[in-house]
Amino acid sequence: MDKPPKKLLDQVRDLIRLKHYSIRTEQSYIPWIKRYIYFHKKRHPKDMGVPEIEAFLSHLAVNLRVASSTQNQAFNALLFLYRNVLGIELNEKIQAIRAKKPKKLPTVMTEFEKEDVGSKMI
Question: Which CATH superfamily is domain 8-120 in?
Fold first, then answer.
């Protein structure tokens, strides 16, 4: 009797472990892949491609307003799925709406604060 093929997420887990990726990578990639599949109403990723990836990543940025690093993590999980697990090379450029990087406000100190910091450095 032939064994039934492994489920997709089990294949992802096995490959992450085979490549000796961090357990944290596994713990972050698996949920992103699940969210991607559920976002597209449980369609199999092999039946989807660049337009679906763009729609998912844009949804994260526009509707969920995730941080750019969070969107990048989701993107890397999907790249791993397509390239390494499914063996599908995504030849088109993925042009999703990018999450905005937070603007860093400059730190401005008063003259008193500058003097206080300077005296503590001595």
Answer: Tyrosine recombinase, N-terminal domain (1.10.150.130)
